[in-house]
Amino acid sequence: MKVAFFDRDGTIIEDYLDHEWTRIEHPVFIDGSISTLKEVIKKGYKIIIITNQYIINEGYITVDQYHDINNQVERELTRQGVELLDVFYCPHGKCEGCTCMKPNIGMVKQAIHKYPEINLEESFMIGDSAVDVELAINIGIKGFGIRVGSNYKEGNIYQLNSVKDLPLYI
């Protein structure tokens, strides 16, 4: 099974400064993200969201607030005909030293443990921050960075201007 690992905040929905998340009640989808997810599925990929949510343990939002936003994301995607295989999140603070926070590979390992049929050679990671690209490098899969700069000279790392550009590369 080939999997498209998507970051959530800044890739599928709008991202905010850490302290602003406290007041966010509804996700705002990034222009083109839903159509991109549909295209990725049409190309035979399953979608898994992998998201750092350090703002939970750092006290900006509660676990319930995270789940409320994420459930709204999942409901809207389902309504739009986008089926997610799964969502993995890391609630740990930046200073906790966990192995799941991107760019560490813990969430991908969790996905492989739950879905052993995942073929990493045919899978990729996409996100809007350096940690997303670095996760792809660390796990050895193709990676797509949305406006993350051109510091990555790896052979299977691609720079995108927008999530809407992804279908051209897969």
UniProtKB/TrEMBL annotation:
Requisite cofactors: Mg(2+)
Keyword annotations from UniProtKB, A to Z: Carbohydrate metabolism, Cytoplasm, Hydrolase, Metal-binding
A Pfam family reported for this protein in Swiss-Prot or TrEMBL: PNK3P
SUPFAM superfamilies per record: HAD-like
Enzyme class: hydrolase
Location in the cell: Cytoplasm
EC number, UniProt record: 3.1.3.-
Main localization (coarse): cytoplasm
Signal peptide interval: none
GO molecular function: hydrolase activity
InterPro entries registered for this protein in UniProt: HAD-like_sf (IPR036412), HAD-SF_hydro_IIIA (IPR006549), HAD_sf (IPR023214), Heptose_bisP_phosphatase (IPR004446), Histidinol-phos (IPR006543), PNK3P (IPR013954)
NCBIfam families associated with the record: HAD-SF-IIIA, Histidinol-ppas
Family named by the database record: Belongs to the gmhB family.
Assembly behavior: Monomer.
Annotated protein name in UniProt: D,D-heptose 1,7-bisphosphate phosphatase
Organism: Solibacillus palustris
Upper taxonomic lineage: Bacteria, Bacillati, Bacillota, Bacilli, Bacillales
